[in-house]
């Protein structure tokens, strides 16, 4: 008999991945899968084992789910997450938390009152390469001063809604939001935000961004992100510079820490490890189930989701106005 009855809301690509991980956790039983597309809910319910395919969140509640994974397209997260929290049901929301800070604030408020535990799906925090960056900084032996970050998306073709900013909330709410969350996680809260943005290929939105952040810690970072690069590699990398020292990541496959002049670099290679582990999804799910069972907060809280949403908004604001945004002052409003 498993400890937690889980329902999945949205039976698409990422739901398939979470399902494949959750079904290997003996503490979890997936009892329902909901999707407006009956073929998809039936197929994933079948993959999950003994789950019932249904159409709505309300039907998942009727089945008696204790935790719901909200894996719908971006702008559909908020209503379902709020319903879960209002019903004291644990909820794992895929990113983004919300596509406006007004909605993010509603979730933050609801999470603070609910008995249900909220977790935001920022899996990259658990990726092996970024855990190494975090550990080296946290150990105190490496003090970062500057970071150069790149995140390119190959296309906005699959799923097709990713090209529609009415559904994504804007390209930055697609994969780039992971790097903004990671930046906060690794370097602390932002102090100022400056962005140059352009609309080059997309017919509907900005798709080209150079984002410069300064942090309360004194660190500076530059994040370059572009929506239509094609899948040439590396599409994601981070270089962090300290005193005669650097730490660099290459996709989720390789991290190199060069601790000082004339010293051997420490290289870890993960290219042989499965995506479910090296992109952080296995640990993300395990720790979320731990948090539910222990009644503790997971690593990525509603407060994190709220602050990252505010940061995304500040980047868009700077791209639009071409002004430097005083982020700390913006937060106090
Ligand atoms: N953390 C990550 O690495 C990661 C990776 C991919 C996607 N995501 C996020 O996960 C979410 C889902 O992305 P995806 O790629 O799986 O999308 P997808 O299009 O493959 O799946 C979404 C599913 O939701 C269903 N759906 C849409 N509206 C619905 C409704 N009103 N009620 C019930 N079902 C509905 C669709 O039929 C589809 O099966 C997005 O928010 C995306 O940003 C996160």
Tell me briefly what this model is:
The chain contains 12 helices and 15 strands. The protein has 333 residues and is α/β, with parallel strands linked by helices. It comes from Ectobacillus funiculus.
Keywords:
333 residues; alpha/beta; Rossmann fold; Dihydrodipicolinate Reductase, domain 2; 9-stranded mixed sheet; 6-stranded parallel sheet; 15 strands; globular; binds nicotinamide-adenine-dinucleotide
Summarize the helices and strands and which ones pair or pack.
Layout: E1 4-9, H1 13-22, E2 28-34, H2 38-48, E3 52-54, H3 57-63, E4 67-70, H4 77-86, E5 90-94, H5 101-113, E6 118-121, H6 128-138, E7 146-152, H7 165-168, H8 176-187, E8 190-198, E9 208-215, E10 220-226, E11 236-241, E12 246-250, E13 254-258, E14 266-269, H9 275-278, H10 281-294, H11 302-321, E15 325-326, H12 327-332
Parallel strand pairs: 1-2, 1-4, 2-3, 4-5, 5-6, 7-10
Antiparallel strand pairs: 7-11, 8-9, 8-15, 9-10, 11-12, 12-13, 13-14
Helix pairs in contact: 1-10, 4-5, 5-11, 8-11
The structure holds nicotinamide-adenine-dinucleotide.
